[in-house]
Specification:
This protein is mainly β. Helices cover about 0% and strands about 50% of the residues. Strands 2, 4, 5, 6, 9, 10 and 11 form a 7-stranded mixed beta sheet that branches. It has a 4-stranded antiparallel beta sheet with strand order 1-3-8-7, with no helix packed on it. A hairpin with a 4-residue loop joins strand 7 and strand 8. The N and C termini lie far apart (about 40 Å).
């Protein structure tokens, strides 16, 4: 069983930066692909970014490419999402997700159905 706890959300002005974190429990984190998703009010949850367990592969939604960076620290069982040049349309609840993929160090998923474990989410609000 993996438990994920997001933190670091908050209120930021447009153009600002924020880093959200996701701390994982359990010994499988270092062999788990990790993803970030978000859900804005009245909208479906959407893919934001993902990273393989080795850190060798990462991917981003077109809407955040060049502004957001996903990274991970396997020694700390933590994945990060550094968000810069934030826009009001980035306002959403941000969720991290995990999938244990021991034999596939370069795997990551873009679909929420690719993941087995989810955090409770952290609110990010960008004011204009």
């Amino acid at each position: 069983q993996v438990q994920l706890v997001e933190s670091g959300g908050g209120l930021v002005q447009a153009g600002g930066s924020l880093r959200v974190s996701c701390a994982a429990s359990g010994r499988t984190f270092s062999r788990s692909a990790m993803g970030w998703f978000r859900q804005a009010p009245g909208k479906e949850r959407e893919f934001v970014a993902a990273i393989s367990w080795s850190g060798s592969s990462a991917d981003y939604a077109d809407s955040v490419k060049g502004r957001f960076t996903i990274s991970r620290d396997n020694a700390k069982n933590t994945v990060y999402l550094q968000m810069s040049s934030l826009k009001p349309e980035d306002t959403a609840v941000y969720y991290c997700a995990a999938k244990f993929v021991y034999y596939t160090p370069s795997y990551y998923g873009r679909d929420e159905n690719d993941y087995d474990y989810w955090g409770q989410g952290t609110q990010v609000t960008v004011s204009s």
